[in-house]
Give the backbone structure.
Amino acid sequence: MTIKEFSGNMKKAVENILGEGYSIEEALIDKNNGVRLEALVIRDPGMNIAPTIYLRSYYENYEDGESLQEGAARLVEDYRKSVPEEGFDVSFYEDYECVKKGLSYKLISAERNKELLTNIPYVPFLDLAIVFYYAFEKRGLPDGSILIRNKHMEMWGVSTEQLMKDAGENAPVSLPGVCRDMGSVLERICPGKVGEVLPEDELKLPMYVLSNSRMINGAAAMLYPDILHNLSEVLESDLYIIPSSVHEVIVFARNMSDDEKSLKDMIRTVNMTQLEPQDVLSDSLYFYDRKDEKISIA
C-alpha cells in the first residue's frame, strides 16, 4: 500500500471513530526545502481551528505491522490531545501591532526554497534566506507558528525592512539563544552512551550547540547580537559554524581544525544520510571572523 492509498484508508477509519459532525480532509502540506507531507486535517464544527496530523509515522508503523484500526485509534487520541481547550481567536492577526509582539525569524536554504521565496518576504543572507513567522504557545499547540507571507505583509502595510527590524528586536528576547556544550547535548539525547557516539578525546573538545529556547528553527540564533562574538571571546579564536539542521548549528574554535574539506564533506554526508529532507539547512561550512564580527562561507 502506498502512502497515498494509506491516507485514503486512514481517513475512512478515522471518520468511523469520530462519527458524524467532523470534517476530515486529506492534504499535502508544503514544508521546508520543497518537501510535501501527507496529512489529515480534522475539523470540529465547534472549533475555529483545524489540527493537521502528519501521516508519515503512522504509515511507518503500519509497514512495521500495526493494523490500520490501531493506527487510526492512536491518531484520534493524538488529535484530541492537540486540540486546545477553547478556540483560537485569529482576529488579532489583522493587527500588525499585535502580531509583531510574537514576530521572529528563521533561516532556510535559498536554493532549496526558490518557489516558496516567491510568496514570502525574506532577507538574503549568504546562501540562506531569513524568513519571518509569528510564534505562539497555547495548550495543545506549545510550539505554534504562522509563516509570514506576502499577502500578510500587504494586509498590514509593512515592508520587509520593518519585519526584519521588529523580528530582530523581538526574537532574541522571546526566543533567546541557548548555547550548550556538545557533551551535555549528547548526554541528554542518549544518556549513559555518549562515549559510544564520540571518542573520549573528541568529547574534551570545546564544541557547542547553538539554538533558541524552543530548540525549533534555532539555527537563526547565530544571527542574534553578540552571541558569536561572546563565544569567540571565550574561546579566543575565530569560529567555524556547522549548519547541523534548521534547528541548530554547531560552533567551535577555528584552531581546532584546519581541514575545511573534511568538514564540508561531513556536512554533505550528514545532510544526505542523517537528516529528514525538510530539516536540512545548508551544505556550506560557515566562518565567523572575530575581528570583523562577520559570518561568511568558508
Q: What stands out?
A: Residues 177-297 form one domain. DSSP finds twelve helices and 13 strands in the chain. The longest helix spans residues 3-18. Residues 193-199 have pLDDT under 50 and may be disordered.
